[in-house]
Specification:
By secondary structure, the protein is mostly beta strands. It contains no helices and 11 strands.
Length: 113
């Protein structure tokens, strides 16, 4: 079993940056791909970015964030980050971390005009 805890959410102005952190714990924590998703009010959950477990230089991004967001992982593999630049008001959402079938509780990101 894996436990995931997100942190780093907050309120920023449009055009600003925010970095979110996901820390995994548990017997198999950090062994698999870790990914970020987000869910805006009234919308479905959307894929943001992912980084592989073994090959930590292998990443994938959702079309709407390519070129602005960067996902990374620390040497232990148990902590993943997403650096979010040039944030837009429509990116106000709860941001979730996922590893395999496990999800964190989410962290709120708010972007004001």
């Amino acid at each position: 079993q894996v436990q995931l805890v997100e942190s780093g959410g907050g309120s920023v102005q449009a055009g600003s940056s925010l970095t979110l952190t996901c820390t995994a714990s548990g017997r198999t924590a950090g062994s698999y791909t870790m990914a970020w998703y987000r869910q805006a009010p009234g919308k479905e959950r959307e894929f943001v970015a992912a980084v592989q477990g073994r090959r930590r230089n292998v990443t994938e991004y959702g079309d709407s964030v390519k070129g602005r967001f960067t996902i990374s992982r620390d040497k232990t593999g148990k902590t993943a980050y997403v650096q979010m630049n040039s944030l837009k008001p429509e990116e106000k959402a709860i941001y979730y971390c996922r590893e395999k079938t496990y999800w964190g509780q989410g962290t709120q990101g708010t972007v004001s005009e």
